[in-house]
Design a protein that fits this description.
The strands form 3 sheets. The protein has a 7-stranded parallel β-sheet with strand order 1-2-3-4-7-8-9. Helix 5 runs parallel beside helix 7. It is about 35% helix and about 20% strand. It has one domain: Alpha-Beta Barrel (TIM Barrel). It contains 10 helices and 11 strands. The protein is of the alpha/beta class. The structure holds zinc ion (2 copies). One zinc ion (ZN) binds next to loops. Keywords: Amino-acid biosynthesis, Coiled coil, Histidine biosynthesis, Hydrolase. It holds the Pfam family PHP.
Length: about 280
């Protein structure tokens, strides 16, 4: 089993501890590689995104740790960059000019009005009560409309570029499945999802298998039932815990690797000396 994690948060965004605490946990658990991926700055302040003013300190702190723990753990600097729309995403100059080892592209917000401000966003990743209110208010209570918006925005993110890894690619189902009318098996759902997978494969991007809620809720992103569709498209994958707490760095990893083996996956993508390589799953 690969002992690595490329999706993680620390106190530069909404992670609950100092970067060094995550590094110490990773070393204690014999990790080979560890990457930080703070929530990118946005055009507006939120509870969980980092501020632009903190970017230099973030880059410097990870660099300090990289040097301090050289020989014990490969440490990498990434970002989890929100796609908002064509004007604000990983392909804009601000992000492409940052000295990062990799970039994860994720959708948490869907703009439902302008300007780009928190009050004009449909948040798909928050509490279900807020999510349900959003579907009622902005999508006329039709979950299909939200799903369409989500996958349209996801495809636009991949088309815009500037990312290496697609983050929790079907996170819409976390809250979506609790809303009336949602179905992971309906044609209107799978058509959108498969078109997105086709595009990820066409653009040669990697996808993460996100274990953040695997032990807590029995959910993995992408959903277990779509793992074969990923393998069939030869989309390179890696297992990430999306940890916000040091002691959750390794959460769900073993279970995810067992699942991947059962679904016929043979390798994961790993950063080795700064380059992505395929590493066989033992
Ligand atoms: Zn995320
Ligand atoms: Zn995350």
């Amino acid at each position: 089993m690969q002992l690595s994690n490329y999706h993680s948060h620390c106190n530069f965004c909404d992670g609950r501890s100092f970067p060094e605490d995550f590094v110490k946990f990773a070393i204690q658990h014999q990790f080979r590689a560890y990457g930080f991926s703070s929530h990118s700055p946005l055009p507006f302040e939120t509870f969980w995104n980092m501020s632009k003013e903190d970017m230099n300190e973030y880059l410097e702190e990870i660099d300090r740790l990289r040097k301090k723990y050289a020989g014990q753990l490969e440490i990498y600097t990434g970002l989890e960059i929100d796609y908002l729309d064509k004007t604000y995403n990983a392909s804009i100059d601000y992000f492409t000019s940052l000295p990062l080892d990799y970039r994860i592209g994720s959708i948490h917000f869907l703009p439902i009005a302008y300007p780009l401000a928190e009050e004009n966003m449909m948040c798909i990743d928050g509490a279900f009560s807020d999510f349900a209110r959003g579907v009622d208010q902005y999508y006329e209570g039709d979950i299909r409309k939200l799903v369409k918006h989500y996958y349209d925005s996801s495809c636009a993110m991949v088309e815009a570029g500037g990312i290496d890894i697609v983050g929790h690619l079907d996170k819409i189902y976390m809250n979506g499945q609790r809303y009336t009318g949602f179905s992971l098996d309906a044609d209107w759902y799978t058509k959108e999802l498969f078109a997105y997978l086709d595009l990820i494969a066409e653009k040669g991007l990697m996808a993460e298998i996100n274990t953040k809620n695997l032990k807590k809720k029995g959910e993995i992103y992408p959903h277990e039932k779509f793992l074969e569709a990923i393998r069939e498209r030869h989309i390179p994958i890696m297992v990430n815990s999306d940890s916000h707490y040091p002691d959750l760095v390794n959460d769900g990893r073993e279970e995810a690797f067992e699942l991947l083996k059962a679904k016929g996956f043979r390798a994961t993508c790993e950063l080795v000396n700064g380059k992505w390589e395929e590493m066989a799953i033992e």
